[in-house]
Amino acid sequence: MVDRHRLEYDHGGEAVTAPIIATERLQLRPHHLDDLPNMFSMWSDPDIVEHISGVPSTLRETWLRMLQYTGHWQHMGFGYWAIERNSDKRYIGEIGFANFRRGLSPTLLDIPEAGWCIARPYQRAGYATEALTAALDWADRVAYLDRSVCLIAPDNWISISLADTLGFRFTEEISNSGKDFLVFIREGPSVSGA
Prior knowledge:
30% of the residues lie in helices and 25% in strands. It contains six helices and eight strands, in the order ββαααβββαβαββα. Strand 1 (21-22) and strand 2 form a beta hairpin.
């Protein structure tokens, strides 16, 4: 169980991987080594990273991202899933929760950060909404996360709309690594009383 205050995961030393979550059209699953080419294609796309880092990822950076996702599951008990489309078993993006230790304000330091990214050919089909709904349901029912936060660029209207639709509420604007972000927080049922 996730300790809501320290965000550490007690798993008795056993390896922890992302659970598989099935939705109507998608499967959220652990990343596989053979996802790397598709991940690299997505994260090196300038249009994809425009609202995130602004800088396309190198193959090495993408590899380290994949290792970071695995490490999150092992040490934190939550992390990122690869999103696979049921119809053709294609990797179409990723979604999940992380604690990137960005050095943000103390109020945000230990709140799991929700994030999502859908590769360009698969955007505007409702996949992000479907995947985020499933991930948040898992966070509420299984991980018992009190709250989650997401950082969204002010001009990323699609992600702002998705966050708002799924219960994230705007709290403040911050700067991180030279970029401005809007901070949205979502309270889980244990906090909101739902």
